[in-house]
Fold these 2 entries.
Entry 1:
Amino acid sequence: MSGQKIRIVKKNDEFSMEYQVGDIFEIDSTWYGGVNVTSRTGIPLSLDKEEYEPWEEEAAGEREVDRYSYELGVMDVFCEMTAAGVKKLAMSHPCDTRQERNSYLPEVKRLCEKYGVKYYPEDEAFITELFPAQANRGKYNFLFYYTDDVLEEYLRLKEEQRRLQETGGYTKQKSYETACAFGRLLSYSQEGIKRLIKKAAEADRKE
């Protein structure tokens, strides 16, 4: 079954932003309750059978959404969630180059004006246990937030991590605490944070 494609028809994990209804994934492997796929950001996803249906491009007769439009759609959702107070901080998907990230800038400005939120172009990804390091190191993205204190807290966390790494104080426990603090800033529940940390560790072990 590996290599076949499925389309998401239902979300059982309400905390995950790695997949949405309508997304199409290629199957990596199967398990007794469903299939395993990989999100666009490199995070492995285990999907239950009730969450997806088989998908064939020819049979569907649909035009696959291009990446640029897809990423803008994701950012639109994140801006709306930030404006509504659902998320304190939101991040766009990582881009491989600064040029690629900046190609979205005109539309990002439009979205932020539309929803009344702010953006911050991140040129140095915040690497923690929350997300796979291999999918984020050396990447570029946008941060979305409503109030300046949120960005200040994010930058403070990054600076604290840097200081501890330089002084040898970035222990395993401190690394975990930093990931949890980052997750809370992104408005994930504690259970959601634990799941993301576990998935990120599994993804990094495969590298």
Note: Residues 148-167 form the longest helix (20 residues).
Entry 2:
Amino acid sequence: MMILVAIGSNLPDPARGLDTPMAVCEAAVTALRALPDLTIERVSPWYETAPVPRSDQPNYCNGVVRFEGEIAPEALLSVLQGIELRFGRERSVANAARTLDLDIVAMGAALRDAPDPILPHPRATQRGFVLLPLRDVAPDWIDPRSGVGIEALIAALLPE
């Protein structure tokens, strides 16, 4: 099954010697490579993006990893949250700056409204910082909820 995970960071992790958000993201990919029963098929290029919603936070480094494998959604969410914690992730207010954010974008064609994780990610199709790197790793991806392809989703975000 194709599994898509978004990676984002806008803070360094000095405790781990990672002095930039990109270094955090690259180290996160290394941690993700160690997951049993999952194989990384592709890693997108990194994108520098402004925070959403707009704020005075530093810009983000964003990308998407494409896995192949089998894992229960709850198990994957737990593993990803554990990796975030190891990288110094602190959960405070919504949309706060963070050392690492790992979000499950989609797991095959799974549709899931509850419990967490909701699949596909409920806001992924509205976020260019997810869709652009997602296109790099899965150019034929179709949102299982709407049936809309990646190119049309990206086009819908562009100003007219």
Note: The mean pLDDT is 94.
